[in-house]
Design goal:
CATH class: Alpha Beta
Largest sheet: 8 strands, mixed
CATH superfamily: Spore Coat Polysaccharide Biosynthesis Protein SpsA, Chain A
Order of helices and strands: HHEEEHEHEHHEHEEEHHEH
CATH architecture: Alpha-Beta Complex
Shape: globular
Helix content: 25-40%
Number of strands: 10
Distance between the termini: 30 Å
Number of helices: 10
Strand content: 15-25%
Structural class: alpha/beta
Number of domains: 1
């Protein structure tokens, strides 16, 4: 049992909790021992040709972004959401203001790396960071724990499903300076090329499904409804 799962097992009933269901002491303990999940929700989503932003599209009883955020909340892992003014109201339905970083347009246009740096800088004392795109609504809370619990002792942790690399990718605190120095739209890909990664194999197809197109959204809706 990893440190995150151990902390959660001590919750009433031994179950994961979200929001007010978590005791203050348990939350503080998780915050001090777990990495931060940085949810990236500042991209323009230009490949999506449907009406409106892809993160605001409906998915069963929620939005795409709302479903992603609810999965993180269900894990009880601490998170920070990096977003824009256009999506701020959507984020506020699920996450408190103190856990939200709103990028001005000039910074949001600088790509994924700027969003990652903004999230890392918002929680510089974290033991590490899990980078999760906001358009991955089918990610399972237990997958987040698997990545978080593998992070101690490794610079990078990457989940795999059926031989394919997915998200979220975990980075240890030792990579703080390099995460802050990232630039462009490749995100942290070059760090994965520079440092050896710990592979975590999960039975979770949600680590591979991100929503870029209408076809992706249709597929996610079908899976979410099944």
């Amino acid at each position: 049992m990893g440190p995150t799962e151990k902390a959660l097992s001590e919750a009433p009933g031994g179950v994961a909790c979200a929001g007010d269901a978590c005791s203050r002491g348990l939350l503080q303990r998780i915050m001090s021992t777990s990495p931060i999940v940085i949810v990236l929700a500042a991209g323009r989503g230009t490949r999506f040709t449907g009406s409106g932003h892809k993160l605001q599209q409906s998915l069963v009883r929620n939005s795409v972004l709302g479903t992603t955020l609810d999965s993180v909340r269900a894990s009880c892992l601490p998170m920070v959401v990096v977003t824009t003014e256009a999506l701020e109201a959507e984020v506020a339905r699920h996450v408190s203001t103190r856990d939200t970083v709103v990028l001005p347009p000039v910074l949001a246009q600088q790509g994924m790396a700027r969003s990652i740096a903004a999230g890392v800088s918002a929680r510089p004392q974290a033991s590490g960071w899990l980078i999760l795109p906001g358009d991955m609504p089918l990610i399972r809370p237990d997958t987040l724990h698997r990545v978080a619990d593998a992070l101690p002792g490794h610079a990078c942790v990457v989940p795999f499903h059926q031989g394919r690399r997915g998200h979220p990718v975990g980075f240890s605190a030792e990579l703080y300076s390099e995460l802050m120095a990232l630039s462009g739209d490749e995100g942290a890909r070059r760090l994965l090329m520079r440092y050896p990664s710990c592979e975590v194999h999960v039975d979770d197809p949600g680590v591979l499904l991100d929503i870029d197109t209408q076809e992706d959204l249709d597929k996610a809706r079908e899976r979410a409804a099944s």
